[in-house]
Specification:
Elements (H helix, E strand, L loop, with lengths): L7 H12 L14 E3 H4 L4 E2 L23 E3 H15 L3 E7 L4 H12 L7 H4 L24 E8 L7 E2 L22 H16 L2 E4 L2 E7 L15
Length: 233
Amino acid sequence: MIFRKLHPGLLCALLILFSGYVSPVSGSALPEGFVYVDEAIPGIVVELRYYTDHNFVGERIDGYLKPRCILAREAAEALKGVQEDLARFGLGLKIYDAYRPQRAVDHFVRWAADLGDVRMKPEFYPNVDKSTLFDGYIAKKSGHTRGGTVDLTIVSTTGRDAPQDLDMGGPFDFFGPLSWPEYAEISPAQRAHRILLKTLMEKHGFKPYSKEWWHFTLIREPFPETYFNFPIQ
């Protein structure tokens, strides 16, 4: 047969081309339509909280196998525009969470149903009864799982030190009115920082969430009805 006369490398290439085969070295390749954000947006800062134990659950969340930030390609392209706008002023974006597998959402739901586990209450929900977290905070389905939602803030990129968070008047993932974008009892500078983030995100096609200043969803998200469950790796 003619294939026996081909160089092994060429034969492998032909098999990949005509059979749709994916090489084992690409086993962690993303599904079609998704990208790694740090590769798509130069200079973006990633602090993937659910890969760590510094979150409202108090442990690494299911499905976060590596601290990689993933988004649907369209969301990453829109976010790149925000990053470019900020870069002109010595500012940039820091992402706390982006694509979130369904298994992670299921982890949140199990945790929320366990009313005895309140180890992180003092930091993340000191004034909220855990039994009420399904009211606007914890849901069985999340826009994050569709790849078009992102949690983020603005950082200063000037100076020799690591990028510094702008003061938003309240921390990421704090459950309560302090996190509402329109919360009035913060300083003018803190409100200005929130307005800057909201204005730029809206300019580039994202819509905000009324209970979390850090949470935005691409209006024209590419997978509006699909909830993915591939792990972050």
